């Protein structure tokens, strides 16, 4: 029977890892559908510093202390409790039980007690998060893009974590009862700080019943974790993994709000601003398309951003356009980009790399109205805890909307014409800009 369980465990483990690797390959290929970006492999020391500060240290989260602390507990719990999973996996494969206990001796119950304290922290934090989302209804969790699956996803993951840590604590409590009864295979480990208080729940149970329950919880725990491993790749919780590369490849020391020029039109702009300027023959040829119409026109970093979005809505909460009732939500821009690249990726898998479903990010996912509403204030970029840049995507889409689709309101066209003709956004030549101040000195002297 033990061998059958070991084989079953190995099959389940291999199946889960195979599904996970398949999904990761799919996501990686989707991200690489994006265009090449400027080099992001320079200055690795600074980039690792960003990873330490923003991904490990969650620096931006600490702008709000309490949610940040709770989030940190869940995150630390997730990482550290998984060390215990290593033991579960080894036990499952080799048919052992708590294989690390004899190796670590007196330290073993100390480690497990530490994990249990974290597990209680995760349990409490998840309950508070559920309360904030569903009872106190923090506004940013209830915007229009959060209807349906995004809200369900956020709730499911919290419930899931509560079930997992609950199973872990009860499993440890049952283990201690079995140890006290001298059950075969249950090595003596010493007491665990939290779960020992649960042992009275199982008083009077026979050894066979205790073993059945302990093994059931053991399987629930590991199956839950393997399910979770695959589930996160379909969920906003993918940020648990992608926050690290996303922080590594984030812009370095770029002044806030810097917009990237379009080298392909710089020649024309230079000549427009100065008709006497010489034409640069080495300028890149005009591109097939200006800006971005679909996800494949965006850069791979934009698509990595989309997959890293936690849907926290901090960007939307500070967006002046959203706050004044406009359709634009930077969080929705990221969610739409991810949904679209998933759709396109699935289509390519089915129909080959030249697949074209006739859809695009602009129009089918993001409206012109949303794109027009952005003030380019950069607040969303500043606020994002995982260094995502929604503004970069908005600008690329808007450049396409204006330069290829000529979808700009009349007021903007007037301004574009003024820039072209007067080198100033208003209807007067730039040189006339300070005419109003010409007589100021005279007036002051006469006063
Ligand atoms: S840059 Fe645009 S999307 Fe971002 S906060 Fe400002 S107005 Fe909103
Ligand atoms: S872009 Fe950043 S701030 Fe906005 S929802 Fe995603 S993770 Fe949160």
Walk me through the structure.
The protein is mostly helical and 447 residues long. It folds into two domains: 58-234, no CATH class; 265-275 and 288-429, Orthogonal Bundle (Fumarate Reductase Iron-sulfur Protein, Chain B, domain 2), CATH 1.10.1060. The protein is built from 19 helices and no strands. Helix 1 (2-31) crosses helix 13 (330-351) and helix 6 (149-180) runs antiparallel to helix 7 (207-231). The longest helix is centred in the middle third of the chain and has 32 residues, at 149-180. The mean pLDDT is 89. One iron/sulfur cluster binds next to helix 11 and helix 13.
Order of helices and strands: HHHHHHHHHHHHHHHHHHH
Instruction: Report the span from N to C terminus.
Output: 105 Å
**Residue fraction in strands:** under 5%
Query: What ranges have pLDDT less than 50 throughout 5 or more consecutive residues?
Result: none
How many beta strands in the DSSP annotation? 0
* Structure ligands: iron/sulfur cluster
User: Oligomeric form of this entry?
Assistant: single chain
- Proportion of helical residues: 55-70%
């Amino acid at each position: 029977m033990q061998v059958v369980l070991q084989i079953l465990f190995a099959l389940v483990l291999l199946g889960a890892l195979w599904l996970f690797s398949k999904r990761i390959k799919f996501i990686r290929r989707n991200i690489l559908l994006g265009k090449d970006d400027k080099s992001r492999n320079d200055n690795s020391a600074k980039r690792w510093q960003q990873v330490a500060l923003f991904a490990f240290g969650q620096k931006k989260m600490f702008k709000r202390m309490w949610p940040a602390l709770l989030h940190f507990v869940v995150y630390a719990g997730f990482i550290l409790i998984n060390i215990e999973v290593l033991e579960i996996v080894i036990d499952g494969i080799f048919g052992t039980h708590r294989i690390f206990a004899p190796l670590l001796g007196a330290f073993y119950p100390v480690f497990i007690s530490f994990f249990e304290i974290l597990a209680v922290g995760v349990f409490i934090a998840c309950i508070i998060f559920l309360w904030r989302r569903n009872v106190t209804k923090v506004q940013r969790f209830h915007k229009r893009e959060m209807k349906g699956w995004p809200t369900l996803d956020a709730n499911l993951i919290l419930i899931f974590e509560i079930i997992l840590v609950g199973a872990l604590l009860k499993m440890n409590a049952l283990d201690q009862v079995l140890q006290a009864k001298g059950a075969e295979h249950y090595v003596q480990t010493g007491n665990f700080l939290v779960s020992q208080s649960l042992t009275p729940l199982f008083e009077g149970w026979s050894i066979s019943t205790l073993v059945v329950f302990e093994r059931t919880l053991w399987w629930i725990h590991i199956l839950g974790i393997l399910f979770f491993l695959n589930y996160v790749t379909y969920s906003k919780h993918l940020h648990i993994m992608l926050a690290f590369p996303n922080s590594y490849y984030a812009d370095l020391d770029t002044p806030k709000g810097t917009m990237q020029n379009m080298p392909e039109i710089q020649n024309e702009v230079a000549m427009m601003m100065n008709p006497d300027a010489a034409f640069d023959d080495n300028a890149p040829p005009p591109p097939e398309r200006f800006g971005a119409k679909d996800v494949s026109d965006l850069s791979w970093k934009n698509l990595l951003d989309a997959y890293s979005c936690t849907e926290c809505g901090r960007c939307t909460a500070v967006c002046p356009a959203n706050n004044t009732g406009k359709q634009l939500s930077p969080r929705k821009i990221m969610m739409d980009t991810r949904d679209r690249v998933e759709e396109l990726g699935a289509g390519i898998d089915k129909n080959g790399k030249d697949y074209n479903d006739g859809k695009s990010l602009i129009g089918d996912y993001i409206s012109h109205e949303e794109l027009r509403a952005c003030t380019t204030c950069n607040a969303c970029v500043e606020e994002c805890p995982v260094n995502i840049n929604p503004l970069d995507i908005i600008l690329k889409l808007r450049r396409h909307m204006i330069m290829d689709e000529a979808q700009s309101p009349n007021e903007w066209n007037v301004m574009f014409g003024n820039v072209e003709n007067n080198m100033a956004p208003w209807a007067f030549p730039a040189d006339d800009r300070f005419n109003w101040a010409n007589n100021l000195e005279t007036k002051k002297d006469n006063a």
